[in-house]
Write a structure and sequence with these properties.
3 domains; Growth Hormone, Chain: A; mainly alpha; disordered N terminus
């Protein structure tokens, strides 16, 4: 058991000066690295699959295995922090992440890579939640808004730079480098954090592990994640396997909720949902991430599949969303005590809805510069969405509850992103099929425009089958573009519909924690 301070020990003073700057950099980089790894692999899947001799669909296991392990570990953060101490748990997580990042790069087969990604994900789970808790505990109360802003910036900007960095490393070096890059960054973050915080460890408690809760969590979340990752390829509930996974997830998660509410030492602190602000903010954060992530998943896919963009250019078209987010975050953080947070998030949802409607007006001839503008404007909303909601769900909680609250909120956010990825890609494909069928109805000898176009192609030297092939390509392109517009419209409506929910939260939202120190 960790050496714990006495109950009557005075609270530790916040860090100051160089130590605080160094800790912020170390914690920010470890958070950045963890979130980055959610997306950096996406663009490298074809290279990884080719290198290890598997199909691209099997290659996506590198993404889903990481997401699965990370999702399971996030709600366990509070229990781990109470059992071993926040500092030890955080540093242990970073070192586990670094070790398995190295092994991922050295993997010589797909099963080895998937196992290493699972373990890397298990290490990453508690990192994001504990990074926030450690930052808030180390900052003076008056500057906790800045700490929250810096933390939020890394969490939001990392997924945007992930595909660009992943594409660049894969194109210029080789895919193992997307994993090796974590090793020096993570090792430094662990050394700095341990050096500065080892004497500031939180109180630990000898707590028995809730085995039944843990098994229900692993099986329930595992089945849900596997269902979401593979549902689209297997035609969802028409597949007996997906149906079985769905039922397993529903039964296990339902039993988990009931069990955890009455367990003496729960692995997940569901009692946090008794706080109105926590519930409202986490629901808004999860649903907001579903809509926001939906746009961010389908946009680069559309650029690459329909408009013929390379992975790097698709990444560059997505990146401008980070510019204003990066500039706005410190301003929101510094003024968080003065702002009406519900109004700030309402503004964010209006910006997201407006830019989604803007996106829905584009056709397949849209230029790079045309596509970049709404992405740039959308950045204003990110800082106004993420930072206030994190402040809202932490308001009124004690310092000892932050790790649990942050872990549970991150779990809900991750789950929202996973559901969003599955749902938006399915919606895009289904709407693409619908628009393809509608557009094809207009291609007949009775349609003068279609007949004229076919004749022009034949005059240009194309045979009739070649001409019909060209028309089919054009129909596909337009159908998928109309379908992507439908996805944007659905996301826009979701953002508008969520605004009333925000106003169920009750101010004051106070400081980000009940106490500055532990």
């Amino acid at each position: 058991m960790a050496a714990t301070p006495n109950d009557d020990a005075p609270p530790l003073k916040p860090l100051q000066g160089g130590a605080l700057v160094l800790l912020t950099i170390a914690v920010a980089f470890s958070t950045f690295m963890e979130v980055l790894d959610m997306t950096i692999v996406n663009v490298s899947v074809p290279h990884i699959a080719g290198s290890l001799g598997v199909s691209p669909s099997e290659g996506t296991w590198t993404i889903s295995s990481y997401a699965l392990a990370s999702a399971i570990m996030q709600p366990l953060t509070g229990w781990l922090a109470r059992r071993f101490g926040e500092v030890k748990t955080f540093v242990g997580s970073v070192l586990l992440f670094v070790l398995f990042s190295m092994l991922c790069g050295l993997a010589t087969s797909m099963p080895m890579l998937v196992i290493c990604r699972l373990m890397q994900g298990a290490g990453s789970g508690p990192m994001v939640a504990l990074s926030l808790s450690l930052l808030l505990a180390s900052y003076p109360k008056a500057k906790q808004g800045i700490a929250l802003a810096l933390w939020a910036m890394t969490v939001v900007v990392a997924p945007i730079f992930g595909p660009i960095l992943g594409g660049w490393l894969t194109d210029n070096f080789s895919w193992p480098w997307i994993f090796y890059i974590n090793v020096p960054v993570g090792a430094l973050a662990a050394i700095i954090t341990w050096t500065l915080l080892r004497k500031r460890e939180t109180k630990t408690f000898k707590m028995p592990i809730d085995v039944i809760g843990l098994v229900l969590l692993v099986v329930g979340v595992g089945a849900l994640q596997f269902m979401l990752d593979n549902g689209n390829d297997n035609d969802w509930f028409a597949s007996p396997m997906i149906l079985a996974l769905g039922i397993t997830a529903l039964v296990c998660l339902t039993f988990l909720i009931v069990w955890e509410l009455y367990a003496k030492h729960p692995v997940i602190e569901l009692s946090l949902f008794k706080s109105r602000n926590f519930t409202v903010a986490v629901v808004a954060l999860s649903l907001g991430m579903m809509a926001f992530f939906g746009i961010n998943v389908v946009f680069p896919l559309w650029l690459q599949i329909t408009l013929g963009y390379t992975a790097t250019w698709a990444g560059l078209a997505s990146a401008p969303v980070g510019v204003l987010a990066f500039l706005m975050a410190p301003i929101i953080g510094a003024n968080i005590q003065r702002l009406e947070l519900r109004a700030v998030v309402t503004f964010a949802f209006i910006v997201f809805a407006a830019t989604s409607f803007w996106f829905a007006s584009f056709d397949s001839s849209a230029s790079f510069s045309t596509l970049v503008w709404p992405r740039f404007v959308m950045g204003i909303g990110i800082a106004c969405f993420f930072i206030p909601l994190n402040q809202m769900y932490l308001s009124g909680l004690g310092a000892d509850q932050i790790a649990s609250a942050s872990g549970l909120a991150n779990f809900c956010r991750t789950l929202g992103s996973s559901v969003s990825t599955a749902a938006t890609v399915t919606l895009w494909q289904h709407r693409g099929d619908y628009h393809h069928a509608v557009l094809t109805e207009h291609i007949s000898p009775a349609a003068p425009a279609a007949d004229s176009f076919l004749q022009q192609l034949q005059h240009g030297g194309f045979s009739l089958p070649q001409s019909l092939g060209v028309v089919e390509q054009l129909i596909n392109r337009e159908a998928l573009t109309l379908a992507v517009n439908d996805v944007y419209l659905v996301c826009a409506v979701m953002f508008v519909a969520m605004i009333p929910l925000l106003w169920l939260a009750k101010p004051p939202f106070g400081n980000a924690s009940g106490a500055a120190g532990h």
